[in-house]
Amino acid sequence: MNYSKNLNFIFRLPTKIVFGPGTAKEVGMEVDELKRTRALIVTDRDLVKTNLVNIVRKAMGTRCVGIFSDVTPDTGVHIVNTGSEYGRALGADILVSVGGGSAIDTSKGMAICLSKGGRLEDYSGINILGSPLMPHIVIPTTAGTGSEVTYAAVIKDHDQNRKLLFADNFLVPNVAILDPNMTVGMPKSLTAATGMDALCHCIEAIHSLQREPIADGLAFHGIRLIKEFLPRAMQNGEDIVARGQMLIAATIGGAAFSNAQVGMVHALAHCIGARFGVPHGVANSILLPHCILYNLDACPDLYALIAEAMGKEVKGMDPLKAAEQAAIAIWEFTKALGMPQSLREVNVDESGLAQCANDALMDGAIVYNPKPIFDSEEVLKVYQKAF
After folding, report:
1. How many CB atoms lie within 10 A of CB 320?
2. 6 part of a folded domain
3. Co-location of 149 and 221 in the same domain
4. Which end of the chain is more exposed for a tag (fewer CB within 10 A), N or C?
5. Which domain holds residue 369?
6. Are residues 173 and 276 located together in one domain of the fold?
7. Alpha-carbon Rg for the chain in angstroms
8. Parallel, antiparallel, or unpaired: how do β-strands 175-178 and 136-140 relate?
9. Are 231 and 296 within one domain?
10. What is the pLDDT of residues 333-360, one digit of tens each?
11. Overall domain count for the chain
């Protein structure tokens, strides 16, 4: 792989990672190590009804001062503001998020408000926080977003029907506890969607204009883990080895893309998610092969390596044909997982694609795409092929 165009890079991974079955019960020790005493659990409305949250609450004992469980899928600014008011009233000094990307991003938003004051919408943007936030421990119950090690949160402004980006190194969680027991109850559809989100993170980190060797090493390993263990986790949800390896894949995918960035797949998926409510992992899964084909001539060597990591034999092939195998491998993989193959299948209205194409050009992720995009008509063509 040729790194001659990008010799200088910075790689960050400040999060402490604790891995293994049963490690969620060690959360109290992590709170103590951070020298905090008043922990607020942040979770969603479904998880709070399960034993998963209770396991964490019991493990913290008197350190736990409350549970905020109003998080919904596609979390919103109003939810973060409500949770912040609740945490402030309790005098919380540390947040423990239990859940998937929505719970983690809600906690990141709450950490901003509880540390800085005011309302979340006042802080949208990149690198504007200026100082450390309240500590945050993450216990993922899905294996996909990688948000447990990233510096970003994407939170929807439901009034404006748009997603706001909050990106700052001070948003990176202090600790990620990866306990495969906490993901055993994931339904097959959620297992598939979150796993494809992780795969997309790995692939986009590799083809990003800001790609670099440490992130590449993580991302290629993540692809291989997902190829092997996502079908196993789908087939048997109680396969602790598969669940654990998927948690690792999601975390290293998060570490890879938070350093190398993502590209047009995420830009297009963000807009489809905001306008039509398509789950992020599902949108990524549908759009990923179409975006690879769009970018094909910009980095065929990288896509050929991705195809190999996905199990394709490409030696001796024409470079573009070898690169095309990456898209074919993803289509075959997602079909086998039972994932939707088109935007039409997930109730996207074709008449709204032009506006989504315009919106995607304004998404920060698109600037790292390997092929520069300046015309919304180019984006619209990709949407239409995915439709």
Report:
1. 12
2. no
3. no
4. N
5. 188-386
6. no
7. 20
8. parallel
9. yes
10. 999 999 999 999 999 999 999 999 999 9
11. 2
